[in-house]
Amino acid sequence: MPPPQPPPPNTGAALELLVHGVGGATPQEMLGDPRTVRVTGDATAAVYRRTEDAHGEKHPERYRDEPVAEAYCWSGLTSGNGSRALWLLLLPFMVVNLAHWMRPTATGRTRAVRLYGVVVRLVALSLTVLLTAAACEVALDLVAWQCAGTSACSERRSWLGFLSSHQGGWWSQPGRRLALAAVVPAALVGLLWYLSNRTWSAYESQSPLDATDADACDPDGAAEAHGPGAPEAPEARDSANTPATANTVNTPDPAGSPAAGGSPGSQASPASSGSVGPQASPAASRSAEPQASPGFPCGVPAPTPPAPTVRPALGRPGFWYGRRLVARLRAAHTAAGFLTVAAAVTVAAARHDRTADSPVPQVLGAALEAALVLCAVVTVWVVCRRGRSESARDTRLDGALITYLPGSALALLVLAVLHAGWSRPAWESSGSLPGETAFRFLALTQGLLVVILALVARSLYRRTPEPRTTLYGLGGPSVAMLACALGGVMTGGVAQRVADWLDGPGTPGMGRGSIIEGPPVLLSWQASVIPVLLLLLLVPVLYLV
């Protein structure tokens, strides 16, 4: 931990910040004065003062006995119409974002810090795939594949009549039903992109008020920017521009010449390691004497540069500025969503084409699947390549990447829809949609990522134990596991509820009374946890009441 900084000298009036509770309050009530003025903020959240205290900093002599009172009103952040409850659908993402900020204190463990950030970003990416797969399960599997492919189910739902396989219409073929149903999850991904782009434009892309480009020090290893093109640390720039010190001798050496691939003066003499021998030059014997610095008289040593100031995390240039990273992550998550929808459509059509007599459908299906895998690999690479930086404000923007990556994924989705919509008269849908093993693979992947995150976090905590760290360094992994559990329970609950509604009085996949297969068994098991969770949540609610 860095040594505590001395408090700044008192140069003006003290400030007293008043913050209301969840119930909310007006600035007039908090300040006890009907005359108030807004100092900063907007209609959603703002800081207010009394009218007579609006410019209190300019008159510190008036506030020697009492501070300047400020009221922070944030009730607009939690109030609004009923549509704000839809943000609860993004609850798993809100929870997993906490795992990044719960990383244990790290000193000199750059690789471990980067690995921690990479694993957290991969967990968040898996939640995007899980959310999109849940929408595909409802729209593609339960509605378009199972219910529309079963006469007993489609007859009960008149709005599915034109998709019914027994109507013999143009939309009756399974591939075309899947192509039409893919509009629903694709629209969901587009909506998430729109919301993310709007918040990015309003918050992350706004340059902080501090004009400093880089922090002077990052003692806790919080800077995660890495990879080609990462902003260079100030220490590296300073060391690169520092002239040769007493331990470096500018002796001519073939290995240090430009022709040998080095730079003049880059080779240290044996005196730099403390040994003096016959081969030592006269310059080396005077290495212990103070060296003159450019701009100072001969024999006068250069002044020692001041120690870098450790700035609090909230005051670092890159803490509030995530323009580049958030844009990259938005492009990667959007591409992952589109690729998930494209894979759900392509896998079913490609599996049917493997039984076709002509090799052309098989080749087209295999080529499309290969393109989806390649784009998925690029998406994962984008997520893993760069982390956030607090010590440097990265003002660049990867315009080509944030444009072409989601654009390529959307183009592959269009090709998948066209491929599935090709006429296949002999194709009939039965059972559940192929590819249900993806949910099992997602669950195993998330479990493995959480285990890796726990090992990294525990290693960081053991290297720098901090008593204030939550759960001995395992707070971040616990939160990540909670986010994955919330995503699984929400996915299973929605899928099971829609299946029960489509199946009517029967239970999906259970006996003769059911008319559809229902969701995968894993989702049904996850949905069965909901009543238990509600009972557990009832205890603290009753206690608070």
TrEMBL record:
Pro residues biased stretches: 300-309
Residue ranges of the TM segments: 85-103, 115-135, 178-195, 331-351, 363-384, 396-418, 438-457, 469-495, 523-544
Keywords from the UniProt entry: Membrane, Transmembrane, Transmembrane helix
Keyword Transmembrane helix: yes
Keyword Membrane: yes
Compositional bias segments (type: Low complexity): 222-233, 240-285
Region named Disordered: 209-313
Descriptive protein name: Integral membrane protein
Species whose genome carries this gene: Streptomyces nanshensis
